Amino acid sequence: AHGSPTRQIRDFANVKQLYEAIGKAFGVKSTDILYCTLNTHKVDMTRLLGGQIGLDDFLFAHVKGDTKTAKILKDGPALGLTISDNGAGYAFIKKIREDSIMSRHQVVAVGDHIQAINGQDLTGSRHFEVARILKEIPIGSEFTITLVEPRKAFDAIAPRGAMGATQKELKPGEARKTLRMKSNGAAVVEDEPTSDVQTTITKIDDLLEQFVGIRDGELSSTMFHIAKECKEADAFAAQLDAQLTDFEFPDDF
Q: Measured between alpha carbons, how far is 178 from 165 in angstroms, rounded to an integer?
């Protein structure tokens, strides 16, 4: 994302292995990679790499920049943050709601990695764990958040953003292919989701944001596929508890 030469990355089956391959190709630590965006060098949270990569997508890796801290007074129940993670141990801010507690603090920005809260190192924490810690901070108390911003790209490199994927021409009836990296470590090539399927997955993601305070396209996709295999609502709820027990979803969700 910062104007380096391009490299072809191969031999990976999950996000962590992808970051390791990128680090090896460019001579950087894989632990310095915060996240990747698809077909843009910008910190665009709508173009984040999730569990699926189009076979003709162009990846841009965003690495660690400066560390900064902010003191936040939690004077209401909701901070106004939506949190995601990179699948390899870093949670980051995906959205800040307008007129929220966090929007008052200019130092806090979309795309920042949440490194620590009140000195507690959050490296390796999932997005829902970080959201839970923030939710449990008592109203009326002040806390310190340590953030790592993505390294800024050079202005002169901005035109590279137009160097996106080259879409190959599809034959009649042929679907575009994606590489899906599953949570169990397997990677499979499958048809790109239809617009109806993607709309449903986005609705699930919206509910995750509303009830849990996170957005995670791969988690939403996993829920969609679990639901497809269940004929009854009770069976679906049981499978959520069995396969995604760490999330502790509230009953209303």
A: 13
Q: What is the pLDDT of residues 97-155, one digit of tens each?
A: 999 999 999 999 999 999 999 999 999 999 999 999 999 999 999 999 999 999 986 54
Predicted TM-score (pTM) of this structure = 0.78
C-alpha 157/C-alpha 152 separation (Å) is 11
**Cβ partners under 8 Å of residue 84, min gap 6:** 45, 48, 91, 92, 94, 127, 214, 215, 216
Residues in the chain, pLDDT under 50: 155-167, 170
Distance CA 148, CA 107 (A): 11
Q: How far apart are CA 84 and CA 37, in angstroms?
A: 13
d(CA 190, CA 37): 21
**Cα 159 to Cα 42: distance, rounded to the nearest angstrom:** 11
Q: How remote is the C-alpha of 198 from its chain's centroid?
A: 16
CA distance to 13, 93, 127, 155, 230, per residue, from 96 (Å):
32, 7, 15, 25, 35
55-to-25, 45, 192, 244 alpha-carbon distances in Å: 19, 20, 10, 28
How far, in Å, are 19, 35, 183 from residue 10 at the CA level? 11, 17, 19
